[in-house]
Amino acid sequence: MSVIEPGQTVGILGGGQLGRMMAMAAARLGIKCFIYAPKGDNPATQVCDGYIEADYDDVSALEEFASKVDVITFEFENIPAKTAEVLAAKKLLYPQWRALALTQDRLVEKDFINTVGAPTAPYHNVESLADLKTAVEKIGLPAVLKTRRFGYDGKGQATIKSDADIEDAWAAMNDQPSILEGFIDFDLETSVVIARSATGEARAWPMSQNIHRNHILDETIIPAPITDETQVAARDIASRLVSELEYVGVLAVELFVKADGSLIVNEIAPRVHNSGHWTLDGAVTSQFEQHIRAVCSLPLGDTSPVGPRVIMKNLIGFDADQWHEILNDPTAHLHLYGKTSTREGRKMGHVTWVKHD
User: Do both 225 and 333 map to the same domain?
Assistant: First the structure.
């Protein structure tokens, strides 16, 4: 454990909006940020103290990056193993590689979740069409087939409603190792975002209700309409996960809430998370500042909301063109990510409202 003080530098792998918001949070604490990302539209480089644009397999560039920073973190989980290996040999890397490896493979992730006593949907490994047919027999239909690696926002998955869909679903996976998950009958999609420091201190924000559109998060609402018992159970699951991993940083746990209030873990994300964006304006300490605090071995901040109700809405694609209308609402907190090109399905920004009525 090494305390990173004001004036020192956090290295961030990834140049997207999550890295951008982490760098902005670090600046409030007097901590510098240095970005490493492949060449492209990297809005985090607009607000950092320096950056390197190079591929993740460029060892010399990675070593140069490590020489310029005091601790390293990342904004997304699909960091190549070799990249993490090179950097971890030079500087502290948080969260640790084990958490990355777990969440890069849906099968390994679900196995791990079950080992800490948290329930998941029924699932089965699928590596061939024959495997898929066997999995359907065991789990039943409807079900969802997902690639084990590199899927997000609805990408890399196919719904199977009847036997007639099986062959097309497998073809959509392009022969990639996959996992079949049974459907869950749920009332609510939620998440709990938690931070843990190297000292073992952990703090979670209140659970959010998450509303999706076209498989992409559309709105997050705080508080989620759940019982206190469900809230406690979700925080307990999150606490067990970060404790077992000896995790350092912010982690999100996505869950389904069933009609009886019981919980099913959908997936975990070892990073700051879209469903935690409300904390920028709606909590005493944002998830981005908390992540910087955690990886720098600083005391964690208060996770209490600053109002009785908070709403966060993503600006997806050309929604961001409405920025002027949004600013006409004096209660709206507008966050644009500085991306240079707009396309359908791309997260361009978000808006937060803290409601006191």
Answer: yes
